Amino acid sequence: MRRMLPYRQREDGRVAEIIKQRMCAEIDGEFVVFLIGARILKPWKVWKWWPVATAMPRMLAELQKRPELGLLHVRSVFSFPDVMALQYWRSFEHLEAYARARDLAHLPAWQAFNKAVGSNGDVGIWHETYLIAPGRYEAFYNNMPPFGLGAAGRLVDAVGAKQEARQRIKAPLTV
């Protein structure tokens, strides 16, 4: 797993270089795209949303230290009152095992949220999980550092049989 660093930052602290050519992303086998987020519904109730806001960074730090748990890459997005993490996982089994593990950060945080907030309307939470089959995705980048699936998998030149979106996604031509 690549280390999860701020936008355009490399592991050595230097700014990641922009790749000035057409690139696409590849990843071996199935993988999972997992979106998870929270919405602060009552911002004045800091004691309700602060534990939610601080739980995710702890989980991501744990996952970064333990690549065998299956997280490939994450990108956090902040847009008050919403917070979201776009995550790429090796498999659904890895994601589910992490969510259910009693000795890791997620399950205790989830249990604490349900006890403190639950469905009282103070903080909204959500997630979406997408299982992606091999060849059933496509990604394109130009003048970008490694980003998204390109940071989770590998970047390759978008030339020849990878030049167009239809070719990358291996979609049949239907009219």
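Next protein, fold it too.
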Amino acid sequence: MVLSGDHPAYKALVDRYQYFVFTLAYRLTNSREDAEEIAQDVFVKAFRSLADFRYGAKFSTWLFTIAQNTGITHLRKKKLPVSSLDQEGTFIQVENHESDFKANQIEDKNRKQMVNQAIAMLSADDAQVITLFYKGEQTLDEIGQILGLEPNAVKVRLFRARQRLKEKMEKYFAEEVRTLTVQ
């Protein structure tokens, strides 16, 4: 249905992936306005290119590749510095539900914030590969397609990014990390 240009079906895909596409764009630009512009461009390009989509890859991989390329093109045009800062906490979703699990929710939120803060301290490349793998749930092959790298190169990048993330966590969140490992 979507491949035949069905607008409501495509809207469902946009709804499903808009948050993650925005997050990838924000990671590249560190600008909400630029990220919104890039995200909009990504979905327009994707819709216009639906006929080019091949079933050899997941739709999300294809879409994230478009997002990556659109973001880089946008940066080149504007000559903006690439950044991995997450000042607006784009991955953090605040839950305002009252329940018996409120303490767990607060603890969970604090963990997510801590991890996001540590990711924000990483280089743009490290933050990107961590984001794609853990939050985008992309495989090494899919990340390789998105970034134009061989899967083994992605595996090495991911390993090194994990090491640097661990170092940041231990350096800046030592007490929190200790309490997490004790539990």
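About the second fold: Residues 1-83 form a domain with the Rna Polymerase Sigma Factor; Chain: A fold (CATH 1.10.1740.10).
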